[in-house]
Automatic annotation (TrEMBL):
Lineage: Eukaryota, Metazoa, Chordata, Craniata, Vertebrata
Region spans: Disordered: 1-50
Subcellular location(s) of the protein: Nucleus
EVE domain mapped to chain residues: 58-220
Composition bias, Basic and acidic residues: 1-25, 41-50
Keywords: Nucleus, Phosphoprotein
Keyword Amino-acid biosynthesis attached: no
Native source organism of the sequence: Ramphastos sulfuratus
Main location: nucleus
Domain of life: Eukaryota
Protein name: Thymocyte nuclear protein 1
Function description: Specifically binds 5-hydroxymethylcytosine (5hmC), suggesting that it acts as a specific reader of 5hmC.
Length: 227
């Protein structure tokens, strides 16, 4: 078992469902509707024009970068806290929502995720991490001193899981929620890649899947000047 870091890890999803290998070729970003259409045309051309089945192969992980006490424990965990961990790696504990837990259990070794600062003055994406250990029992569910202790969970049949994540790199710039939302609204009206992004359709989940198209488009925004 890993030693728990001094700063309590805040990668949490409360029981009440409380809110909130980089690609070698990136699609061109664009604030206009035509921007994503041109990108889609290029992508379809590269794949022979075939529509691929929707699959989730990337993730968005929410964590709180600002101090907040939960049952007397500070649940803050920012990207700087992750970078300060040994080997820049830690476990993603404290998830207490069944759908978010199931997403954790679906994660595969090597898959990449956006590290998203949540429940703060300006939420948004700050970095990329990767899954370095697939789902295993979350030890905090059995720790009575932990704010996410679950007395109904049994060691022979644990309810809650966690994965290990490792820092990959910072995004080239901070990508704020407001900017992603603007693209989501435009794509909703015009059928773009972010039209069904779970960040807006299931915004309360702290663990969210992303399609390849969603991940690529959001990642391409780091190349653009802030709106």
């Amino acid at each position: 078992d890993k030693k728990e870091p001094d700063a309590k890890i805040a990668k949490t999803e409360e029981t009440s469902d409380k809110e909130e290998e980089e690609k070698s070729t990136k699609p061109p970003a664009g604030g206009s509707k035509s921007g994503w259409k041109n990108w889609k045309k290029t992508k379809e051309s590269d794949s022979g024009g075939e529509e691929s089945k929707i699959t989730y192969c990337h993730w968005l992980l929410k964590s709180e970068p600002e101090s907040r006490l939960e049952k007397g424990v500070d649940v803050k965990f920012s990207i700087d806290d992750l970078k300060a961990q040994p080997n820049q790696t830690t476990f993603w504990d404290g998830v207490r929502n069944y759908q978010a837990r199931n997403f954790l259990r679906a994660m595969k070794l090597g898959q990449q995720a956006f590290f998203y600062h949540s429940n703060c003055k300006e939420p948004g994406i700050v970095a990329i991490v990767k899954i370095v250990k697939e789902a295993y029992p979350d030890h905090t569910q059995f720790d009575q001193k932990d704010p996410h202790y679950d007395s109904s969970s049994r060691k022979e049949n644990p309810k809650w899981s966690m994965v290990d994540v490792q820092f990959v790199r910072m995004t080239k710039r901070f990508i704020p929620l407001s900017e992603i939302k603007a693209h989501h609204l435009a794509h909703k009206a015009d059928g773009g890649p972010l039209k069904n992004m779970m960040l807006f359709t299931r915004q309360r989940l702290s663990i969210q899947p992303l399609t390849q198209e969603e991940f690529d488009f959001v990642l391409s925004l780091e190349e653009e000047k802030p709106q």
